[in-house]
Design goal:
Elements (H helix, E strand, L loop, with lengths): L14 H48 L10 H22 L1 H8 L3 H5 L6 H30 L10 H20 L8 H14 L15 H5 L2 H14 L4 H30 L2
Length: 271
């Protein structure tokens, strides 16, 4: 009796397919928790624009808007808050959730028993974080439109702009967070990273109000690049050369973070 030939082995999944499998895991988790986050995604920008744009804005506008480029404080502030929210979402999703996936709920540890490689685990989680950034940015743009806070139809491009800004934060911070041994380390990011960036990146006032020696520092920050990009789109003042600089800066930072994440995840999760 003849021997049956061995069955052909199924081809190994590609890198993109494994990344999507990792993403699906986080989507399943989010299906259980989305109700708690959707309210903060909507109420946060609503309260911010109401208090700062209309409340404080009425005082600012009463003294003239020449320093703001001739636009109301609401229209000056709204695209900056769009950028801030993208940053906050990125940092929030790339710190404790990453740390907890190693230390608390062990999602990363469980994924090690699957065909997923460390780089696939990282990219899948980063892709989910990017989706969260895009979702929150879309909600904020709807609020902006409802308040009449945008002057140009180009504001719709603020969605990919804010998403890219968030990715520029999420990629390197996630690459670092997986190496953290104590969750208290993230306090430095929130207190000495996010807060100074919010105050000195032309968010609440023009950079011209800063001392001259601080201007190069502000120009070098990713949040300023994102604020300038979102504000230029919202006001219709963005030039092609400025857009290329802002997008190039944020894309380079994102690529650097993705490159670093592939290595830090491999060192942390490889067994």
């Amino acid at each position: 009796m003849g021997v049956s030939p061995p069955a052909a082995l199924a081809p190994a999944p590609g890198s993109w397919e494994l990344t999507v499998r990792s993403l699906r895991c986080w989507i399943v988790v989010y299906r259980r928790t989305w109700r708690s986050s959707i309210w903060s995604s909507f109420l946060g920008p609503l309260l911010y624009l109401g208090a700062m744009g209309f409340g404080l804005g009425s005082l600012v506008d009463s003294h003239g808007t020449a320093a703001l480029g001739g636009v109301s404080y609401l229209r000056f502030l709204a695209p900056a808050i769009l950028a801030i929210q993208a940053m906050q979402t990125a940092v929030g999703e790339s710190t404790y959730p990453v740390f907890g996936s190693v230390k608390w709920n062990k999602i990363y540890i469980a994924a090690q028993a699957s065909p997923l490689r460390p780089a696939d685990i990282y990219r899948g989680h980063l892709l989910f974080n990017t989706l969260r950034i895009a979702m929150n940015s879309a909600v904020f743009l709807i609020v902006m439109a409802a308040f009449g806070a945008a002057r140009s139809p180009e504001v719709v491009l603020g969605l990919p702009a804010a998403t890219l800004l968030g990715l520029a934060f999420a990629a390197p911070i996630g690459a670092w967070a997986v190496t953290v041994k104590e969750g208290s380390s993230f306090n430095y990011v929130f207190r000495f990273g996010m807060m100074p960036l919010m105050l000195f990146s032309a968010t609440f006032f023009p950079l011209s109000r800063l001392p001259g020696w601080l201007l190069p520092v502000a120009y070098a920050t990713p949040l300023w690049q994102g604020v300038a990009l979102c504000r230029g789109l919202s006001l219709g003042t963005l030039t092609a050369s400025a857009a290329a600089i802002h997008v190039g800066y944020l894309a380079a930072l994102s690529a650097l973070g993705i490159w670093a994440g592939g290595r830090t995840y491999r060192r942390r999760l490889y067994v």
